[in-house]
Amino acid sequence: MTGEEARQAFLDWLARERRAAPLTVEAYGADLAHFLGFLTQHLGGEPGLPELAGLRGGDLRAWLAHEATEGAANATRARHLSAVRSFFRFLARRHGVDNPALALISAPRGRKPLPRALAPVQARQVTDDIAEMQDTAALQARDTALFTLLYGCGLRISEALALDVRDAPLPGRDAPLRVMGKGSKERIVPVLPAVREAMASWLRLHPDPAPASPLFLGARGKRLDPAVAQKVLREFRRLNGLPEHATPHALRHSFATHLLAGGADLRSIQDLLGHASLSTTQRYTAVDQERLMEVWRKAHPRA
Fold first, then answer.
1. How many whole angstroms separate alpha carbon 296 and alpha carbon 303?
2. What is the pTM of this model?
3. What is the pLDDT of residues 219-267, one digit of tens each?
4. In the CATH hierarchy, which fold is given to the domain comprising 120-299?
């Protein structure tokens, strides 16, 4: 059996026995055709079952490297490798073709998307104008305090909504905010005067200001649901023409990106965000570089 005959048998099995969708069968067929086409050139002839069984790790890595030179991204190459592994599992079950080299090949890792921050003027627009989404003074003060806190201190939405009244940073106090982050790790975050003032305005209208009460309450008097805060900002951004990535978490990204642009060092930003690894914080340097490149593309006459 040639490699092409094996490919057709695999596709028939996918369609008839596994009842895979036609587009899935088509995608697997194209991926395997490219794989077999590479092997034909790489090995000097069309591969059969013995050649497929005898492929070494170096042959498979050469194929992945060839894919990269052809412009395939890591996610695409990982998908192609998954198709090849499914093909070889079929060959092992139906035709006794056992190739242990595949188990030693790691799938290429897709690149994490860069954090998407708002422009400083957009972040200020959220904190200054978010109150317009509510009808009552109490809810207006609550939302202003919440979103000012997210941008001013770089908190995750879950961290902000987990705070109690006794945790609220108020004017006249120099103490930083203690935040319980991921992995139950506590970190210390300095607080801007604007955050303290917004918090004081909210606590004056807080319906249950007992120390153990949730700092941010929903309409029914329970701890505010993150989905409610996300919905408020979603409606605000659409009414005010902000980008679709203007979310509560984007305010945290904006906090870090704007600090970096202002000259803060990565190690300090890591501590403020509560990142366990500096490599996570380093993604913000790529954001800053991309912003500089965008300015250059727009401003340079020959760009």
1. 7
2. 0.63
3. 888 999 999 999 999 999 999 999 999 999 999 999 999 998 888 888 8
4. hpI Integrase; Chain A (1.10.443)
Domain 3-104 in CATH 1.10.150.130: yes
Catalytic residue, candidates 85, 223, 249, 291: 249
Please tell me which residue in 77, 156, 237, 253 is annotated as part of the active site.
156
Judge whether 252 counts as a catalytic residue.
yes
Note if 249 is an active site residue: yes
Catalytic-labelled residue, pool 94, 178, 182, 231 = 182
Share of the chain above pLDDT 70, in %: 94
Name the band, by pLDDT with cuts 50, 70 and 90, for residue 290. low
The answer to whether residue 300 is catalytic is no
